[in-house]
Amino acid sequence: MNQFQIEGSRTYYLKINRMEDFHIQATNELGNRIPPEIWKPYLYFLDKESFYGLTARIDGLDLLLTPAEFVRLFQQVPHHYVSFLGQRAEDEAWLKLAGKVADSLNDPDLWNHVSVDGEDILFDSAYGDPEIQAFLTDTIQHQLRQKGLTPAQLPFIQHFVQHAGWHGLPAAEDYVLAAQLSEPDTDAFWSFKVVLRSKRGTVYWSPSKRRADQPIENVLPEKWKAHSQEIRQQQTLLLSLCPSVENYDESRLFHAEWTDAQVLEFLRNDAEILQAFGIEVSIPSWLKAVQESKVRVRANIHSPVKKASVVGLDQIVRFDWQFSLNGHELSMQDFQQLVAENKEFIRIGNEWVRVDSNLLMQLRKMIEEADDAEWTIKDMLFQNVPEIMINEEAEEDDDPLVEFHLNKSLRLLLDKLLDKRDLPETPIPPNLLTELRPYQKTGFDYLVFMRQEGFGLCLADDMGLGKTVQLIAYLLHVHGKNPEQPSLIICPTSVLGNWQKELERFAPDLKVVTHYGSTRPKEGEFLHFLNDEKPDVVLSTYGIASSDAVEIQAVHWTSITLDEAQNIKNMYTKQSRTIRKFKGDHHIALTGTPIENRLSELWSIFDFINKGYLYRIKQFQENFMIPIERDDSEEHKEKLRKRIQPFLLRRTKKDPDLQLNLPEKLEQLEYCPLTPEQAALYEGLVQDTVQKMETLTGFEKKGLVLKMLSKLKQLCNHPALYLKEPYSSAEEILPRSQKLERIVTLAGEIAERGEQCLIFTQYIGMGHLLQQAINELYGHEVPFLTGSMPKNQRDSLVASFQAGEFPIFILSLKAGGTGLNLTAATHVLHADRWWNPAVENQATDRAYRIGQTQFVHVHKFVTIGTIEEKIDSLLTQKQSMSEQFIQSSQWMTELSDHELKELFSYNL
After folding, report:
1. What GO molecular function annotation could you give as one example from this UniProt entry (predicted)?
2. Angle between helices 599-609 and 634-644 (to 10 degrees)
3. Which residue, among 864, 857, 851, has the nearest Cα to 747 in the 3D structure?
4. What angle do CA 253, 259, 263 make, to 5 degrees?
């Protein structure tokens, strides 16, 4: 009897298929397939790490598990009346293997047999068979990813994991061991120590300098003396995670004096590893933000012509330069001295800051160039400004390095160029630490005006036009009047960090808190927390807002903003219904795609911003959805446009009035034929599925159509994806798919020309094929950003790509389609077509957005004669409707049998 079988219990028989992940299906005693939603709770009922199954991934009738999840779940104590058995011998073998791997992971001797070669984790031949080694490799890699670490860092953590496991230092009774870095006092050296604090306290303790070199047991306070041996052992574990620390005396509490270079090395490597294992790292508060410290340059721009009645674009201007460092004003002489000293850390007033000496040199060069050249207004506003002056980082940094302030005559000229709307002008909050673009000022004026008039609104600017900064300016204006309640921003988890950073940089005067994570205050504690902290802005996510609905509904917010508001597009989901009930003085929706597929999505957003304005859903269906989606009525389209126009501000990158000066983008279809192998598989799959469709009901047919669509698209990419075959070699896999071969070749050519590209795909397997083939043929390590990647690793990869550290970046279409700025790319490759043009365009907009100064070439790969080519023509139709905020509901599952046969058929 398998260990997961309990006598007299309900039994589920598992079919286990191993691909990149494990795909698991279950049947009951009668052989009927059971949806994962029914049996999943029994598998996860003790699994805290997944929040008891809340983060589980389901694909149709398959439960998807990573190797680490598979081991974790099938080594736990089984449910008291539900058993899991394998359907086949190979399934039973997988379950037994999970137990063996679990035993190995818990074996301290394991780490004596592990080594790392580059990014590869290796085991010596003395430890386990190859199958267990492969399984262990996958599991360890997953554990590293979960902590935001890489295999290259494994040697630094092996000793710790061997003796303490993956969860951090063993919990102590009455103390917490931590690492403390302190800034220089009177000399040039930093202090790094291992310190202690009481569990209930916040003050760190360390021995005085006079006693610092005495043994641990001699210097500890009485309350901790009994734990001296335990503290010594925990210190050894803690320091084992610090590659910077070598050859220390284990008998005393560690302390050392470090130079600037040693501190930077610690911050770049050791601190990340310590924090990954939950160890407290205390560093000066200014040092946490020191990487953001920059010299700011303000250029007051004047016309030397004092009595001219007209100021023209060709007028030569002069600059009055002003400098500041972390808010401290510097003279030109101070600035020049700062450049000359070339120091890493300097003290300004009572605070320390870190400066980038290379950046200072660039600034000095720019200032000299501006003073020597005879710049006109036209030069300044448009193309001839040096790159550093227009600050390519602005979209990601949103805190301009160089600010330009025009005098009155130049400002009047600029106003004429911008053609503003007739909205009441609202002064920009003086504590907004950036300049709003003119159209953003229009958006800000619009937000304030609509609040004053008591109307909600949807700010529906294209991706990348700066909806965030317009809202932050609005929040500064509103909270400058000291309202009693905070404002709430609800956003996807993936952009929570972006909101935090941009609020810090644009509006440090706003007090911002996040309502997120397992330690967030709940129930009555939430109101107490708001009363005590008195924040201006509360940041939360859609998932948390839905699960903590009672707490959030108990507050009448000053304003409620939904970022990426399309997340409530499905009016029937619990999340959408819950969030639409939240109450605030002003409701705002931010989205670049107010409609992705159906008009009901627009209704859902308007039901949040102005409840009842678009009637009840039944009346909206009768008045608009049916005549527009069924009958394509132009009269009703125009009627709806006029109705929503006052409450929806939409600007696109193609709008010439915005004067974005964006480069053009070229969208090009790259047609690829199927190989004979693909064609034979394609026709076989179509014939088999069309026969099945004739025997199915409407609901069953829809499910089969969607499943077949996914299979066909995978087959168009590569037969190995459809057949679920493992990677062999580039020499073997490339001839089997001309599309894969073309993408790999094109990406390699782009990289060899010194350019950068993004590759988007919907399929994890396709991403890995591309990764491996490009690496094998061109030697490039190609990162792959997926939805399961931890936020800190994701942010690090984005920053590295923007810095030009690698030329090719593969992204899952959904994971990489929103919330990222990747303007370093000059090429965007869509490996497979998404049936929703809005989603595909969002992905392209990662590169084609403000901050992009280069031509962007978009390559969309289509296999000839297949569903991809037919979808492309339908996408063109859908795109034209999307631009009108209208999209037809007649799509894949709504087509007739004849239309489906025509769509799926393979036509050479």
Report:
1. helicase activity
2. 20
3. 857
4. 75
- Indicate whether 414 pLDDT > 70: no
Q: Are strands 345-348 and 808-812 parallel, antiparallel or unpaired?
A: unpaired
**Cβ within 8 Å of residue 667, ≥6 positions away:** 844, 858, 860
Are 718 and 740 contacting, i.e. CB atoms less than 8 angstroms apart?
yes
Written as six digits, the tokens of 153 are 């860092």
Report the chain's terminal Cα–Cα distance, integer Å. Answer: 55
403 closest CA partner among 324, 311, 496, 286: 324
Q: Provide the β-strand partners of residue 82.
A: 10
Neighbours of 9 (CB within 10 A): 15
Return the structure tokens found at 288. Answer: 């946490």
Contacts of 664 (CB under 8 A, 6+ apart): 855, 856
Strand partners, 59: 62
Pick the CATH number of 438-655 from 3.30.70.100, 3.10.20.30, 3.40.50.10810, 3.40.50.11690: 3.40.50.10810
As a residue count, the chain comes to 908
Cβ–Cβ under 8 Å, residues 578 and 541: no
Cβ count near 263 (within 10 Å)? 23
Which residues 6+ apart lie within 8 Å of 152 measured at CB? 116, 118, 119
**What tens digit of pLDDT does each residue of 269-323 get?**
888 888 888 888 888 776 655 544 556 666 666 655 443 333 444 556 667 777 7
pLDDT in tens, 304-314: 544 333 344 45
CATH architecture of 669-904: 3-Layer(aba) Sandwich (3.40)
Q: Boundaries of CATH 3.40.50.10810 in the chain?
A: 438-655
Beta strands 827-830 and 856-863: pairing type? Answer: parallel
